[in-house]
Amino acid sequence: MQDPIILIPARLAATRLPDKPLALIAGEPMIVHVWRRACEAGIGPVCVATDSREIAEAVRRAGGEAVITGEDHLNGSSRIFEALRACDPKGRHDVIVNLQGDLPTIDPDVITTAVEPLADPLVDIATLACVITREEERHDPSVVKAVGSELSPGRLRALYFTRATAPSGPGPLFHHIGLYAYRRAALERYVALPPSTLEVRERLEQLRALEAGMRIDIMLVDDVPLGVDTPKDLERARAVLERRAALSGDTRD
Q1: Is the pTM of this model over 0.85?
Q2: How far apart are CA 225 and CA 155, in angstroms?
Q3: Which residue, among 233, 197, 210, 3, has the nearest Cα to 95 in the 3D structure?
Q4: How would you classify the pairing of strands 174-183 and 125-131?
Q5: How far apart are CA 31 and CA 209, in angstroms?
Q6: 231 C-beta neighbours (distance < 10 Å), count
Q7: Which domains, ranges and CATH numbers included, belong to the chain?
Q8: β-strands 28-29, 145-152: how paired?
Q9: Which of 4, 38, 154, 192 fits as disulfide partner to 46, beta carbons 3.0 to 4.6 Å?
Q10: Where are the alpha helices (DSSP H) in the chain?
Q11: Distance from first CA to last CA of the chain, Å, rounded?
Q12: Digit-coded pLDDT (tens) for 217-237
């Protein structure tokens, strides 16, 4: 039986958009919007893992749960593992969803989709991707490409992740979406491993798992969620969520 928990890593240090988890969107901090989308997925409890008391307090004021973690984590996966041990010391939850704290407009159904491959006991980690439709993204190193073998319509087994344009030849390319669902034992194994050669070379943490022989399956979705990394991204997110709030009659301010 799967018993998921969603953990959202968030920190204040960001070079392109300082303090972005606390940036106000439609009257609430961005991290609160991400927490709400996670709750709306309805697959299990949600907790924010952060090294910032300001972020934790913002989440708690909204009615959410937050865990203060150390400041020395190299990536979100190690941060959520520390939080997992704090909020679930008895090991009740066997599936851990790592949802980035800068996806305030994410569709909750997408979060649910990410968990589906873990119904197969042979799968260690699940993640998401979508077909690249814009020509410039095919050659953009900031767009990570997922390379995999089709298992069934809409599902791949990951073979590699790269910033290069791959694979070559005719056919679709897939834009990787950095949302992960870990089997608990896989997360424990992953964080105990040292950074791998290809992980360091490509600057992609998921390659550590592949190099260690762990199986990653990919679910294909229709769109890439809007990630907020720059002031321009923040304005786009504000426009989307303020429009939603107006349509729903939500008057938070």
Answers
A1: yes
A2: 18
A3: 3
A4: antiparallel
A5: 28
A6: 12
A7: 1-102 (3.90.550.10), 107-225 (3.90.550.10)
A8: unpaired
A9: 38
A10: 30-41, 53-61, 76-87, 108-115, 135-138, 184-192, 197-202, 206-211, 231-248
A11: 41
A12: 999 999 999 899 889 999 999
Beta bridge partners of 160: 147
What are the beta bridge partners of residue 80? none
State the CB neighbour count (10 A cutoff) for residue 164: 13
- Give Dmax over CA atoms of the chain in angstroms: 52
- Quote the Cα angle for 29-17-63, to 5°: 15
Token reading at 112: 């649910």
Per-residue DSSP letter, 56: H
- Measured CA to CA, the distance from residue 39 to residue 155 in angstroms comes to 25
- Cα radius of gyration (the chain): 18
Q: CA–CA separation, 195 vs 211, rounded Å?
A: 10
Strands 155-162 and 145-152: antiparallel
Cα dihedral value 119, 122, 127, 131, nearest 10 = -100
**pLDDT tens string 175-221:** 999 999 999 999 999 999 999 999 999 999 999 999 999 999 999 99
Residue type, 98: N
List Cβ neighbours of 61 (8 Å cut-off, separation of 6 or more): none
Beta strand 174-183 pairing with 155-162: unpaired
Residue owning tokens 């990570």: 144
Residue 108 DSSP label: H
Residues 6+ apart with CB under 8 A from 71: 51
Q: How far apart are CA 96 and CA 217, in angstroms?
A: 15
